[in-house]
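$ ./design --mode recover --in tokens.txt
reading tokens...
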């Protein structure tokens, strides 16, 4: 092959690929479903569910789903698989929601282009659309993932809310995510809730001292005591927003609040105090490009250990592997 021809081939590949990472790329489905724009179908279903309140706090639900999926076997939609011992059954995933919404999106896509769009890609696209509907900014999602065939509760080992900053950096680093990526992604806690049981020790017996965590503000301490009594009535485990000031918006107020000592989870509060991340938090608060950089971090999360051509499959139902799969028996 001549140098000139080789150059033409390279330039053609670059032009064809556009924005891509490995076999992932923006616009992977463009032109593959006739006149149907796959991303518009996803967006329309998410919008319907958002405005009709068919799923509470869609952005919080899908942000958690994507994180919990990607941090186990990679972004392969293994969290969606049903089964007695699947990832869904693991204790850390008991709070994950949004499965019915993903089913609705999958059904709409299968009706138009059967067997084309993976469940893993649906999670990424739907999460982006939900973020936008909750005050965030649009970001391009790379697509082209395949779905995994294995889902085991025993594989679920997610970082706890009380993990140290240094250990959290290691966990994220193992997924090729930088400390800055980590801080932005934890900024997803600007929406969503946690249970009182997960922060009871911070309120009443921090490190077995018999008192509250001294890093929380007096205002937060007072609010948490109201919402999370020392002895819950009727054994009810109340929920509280992770961002007490703007709990339904994806914005940078979360970082402003943790800087004031209003971080509900210990790891969130420590981001603003630990020398490894304190400057990152301060920079985010002052950065007018927060939404763009949050989107960039979400794109990097979506690249974690993905399956592409030659790996995995495109499930026809997000809840079960295709019947031809060797691993089908694992989920019955």
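writing sequence...
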């Amino acid at each position: 092959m001549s140098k000139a021809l080789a150059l033409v081939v390279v330039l053609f590949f670059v032009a064809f690929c556009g924005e891509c990472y490995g076999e992932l790329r923006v616009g992977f489905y463009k032109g593959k479903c006739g006149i149907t724009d796959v991303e518009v179908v996803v967006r329309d279903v998410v919008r319907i569910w958002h405005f009709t309140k068919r799923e509470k706090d869609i952005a919080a639900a899908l942000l958690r789903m994507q994180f919990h999926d990607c941090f186990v076997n990679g972004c392969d939609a293994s969290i969606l698989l049903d089964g007695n011992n699947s990832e869904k059954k693991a204790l850390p995933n008991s709070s994950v929601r949004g499965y019915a919404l993903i089913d609705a999106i999958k059904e709409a896509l299968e009706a138009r282009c059967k067997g084309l769009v993976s469940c893993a890609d649906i999670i990424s696209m739907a999460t982006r659309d939900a973020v936008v509907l909750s005050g965030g900014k649009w970001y391009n999602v790379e697509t082209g993932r395949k779905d995994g065939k294995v889902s085991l509760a025993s594989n679920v080992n997610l970082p706890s809310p009380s993990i140290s900053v240094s250990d959290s950096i290691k966990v994220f680093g193992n997924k090729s995510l930088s400390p800055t990526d980590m801080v932005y992604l934890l900024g997803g806690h600007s929406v969503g809730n946690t249970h009182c049981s997960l922060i009871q020790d911070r309120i009443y017996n921090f490190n077995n001292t018999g008192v509250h965590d001294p890093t929380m503000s007096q205002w937060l301490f007072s609010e948490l005591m109201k919402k999370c009594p020392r002895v819950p009535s009727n054994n009810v485990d109340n929920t509280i927003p992770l961002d007490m000031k703007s709990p339904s918006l994806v914005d940078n107020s979360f970082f402003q609040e943790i800087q004031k000592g209003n971080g509900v989870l210990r790891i969130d509060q420590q981001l603003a105090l630990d020398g490894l991340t304190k400057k990152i938090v301060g920079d985010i608060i002052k950065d007018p490009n927060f939404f763009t950089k949050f989107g960039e971090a979400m794109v990097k999360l979506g690249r974690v250990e993905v399956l592409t051509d030659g790996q995995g499959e495109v499930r026809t139902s997000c809840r079960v592997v295709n019947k031809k799969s060797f691993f089908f028996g694992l989920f019955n």
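exit 0
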